[in-house]
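Q: My collaborator sent me two sequences in one message, no labels, and asked for predicted structures for both. Can we handle them in order? The first one she listed is below.
A: Yes, handling them in the order given. First sequence, followed by its structure tokens:
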Amino acid sequence: MIYKQDYYQGVAVLQVIGDPRYVGIRKHEWGFIVNGNIFFLVKYTTRPRSPWRFTFTQDELNRTASIIGSYQRLVFAFVCGGDGICALGWDQIENLMGFDPGWIAVKREMVPAWANHRGPAGGNLFRRAELSLGSAL
């Protein structure tokens, strides 16, 4: 059986291997290791329209903390239904959320850009994100 998660991870991995800087990728228990020094994680939602919300549990944050020092870069790919992918480095996520459980919402605006904010209580933190997965590598 092919699981839904496999489809969404596959879409993100295809973006990575299409990048000219791509050298290699291997599966890890929690994600993928790209070019030997980038840890790559995929979160997805099947919701068809913006805004898309991606939750970070304490367990996910603890796992992330356990691998931060082992790789040059940590990148999360947020697969937004069939609309696209927004990629953020861990430094950007930490800037938005700190190290507390919560969520990041990704929104498609009228101009071709992604916007991200955090806040279960309608937080007012608002930042622009990188536009493509390749730019996060």
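Q: And the one she listed second?
A: Here it is, processed independently of the first:
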Amino acid sequence: MFNTKQAPMETEVNQVRDVVANQVYRTTKYERFSFLDGNRNLNPMHFERLKTAIATMDLTESNPILVNDDFEIIDGQHRFEVCKYLKKPIYYLQKKGYGLREVQMLNANMKNWRLEDYVEGYCDLGNEEYLYLRSFLAQHKLGMMSSVTILSSMGGGKALSITDGTLLLPNKERGETIAKWVQQLEPLYAGCRRKSFLLALVKIYSIRQFDFSQLMAKLSYQQTKLVDCTDMKGYLTLLEEIYNFKERGTKLRFF
């Protein structure tokens, strides 16, 4: 007879215990924390959105800020400021030796906001300049930076002003006029929305004696002369030549 007695089953199972990797602390001693030089500035739109979210449902205990051994904030500046404003406790993790390099690595791995995202965010906050810009973009479809260029000044720093909430558009009348010019020019020249061409129109707009109807009349029989140029100066030279074609007397200079 075969022995049918079953072999004893193994009763001990190797179990792997989870290890506590980081300790989360809680405090209301806001004064012990500081910002790290070189970290990104606070964004007022992000602050307002986060303030509403945390006031509605505070999940910061599950999403603590990250600080180094000097209590400099590596990640979570906005969370810290919102909790401080709302007089809520600060939950934090502490990592010794962390500094600007780790800040930059964390920022690089986060999803970057598009300029359109910032515009939408400031519109949500009721900022009138951003509301106007959003409407202008939807109506004229000239592109973000081109639209801001013709609506604001000719200086630099436009992208920064969009993201930090300080955007000002003092040249709305100019922008609307140039947008209408583009609409009329588009059947004659497909490149009329190029940034360098729009910059040329901004320059021409400032010339008091310029008559757009005269330019359109000259283009009606010189359309083939309007071609792509590499920069604003090239377009100004070309448009000046077309505008002054067969003109007698003093010719209008565009630059």
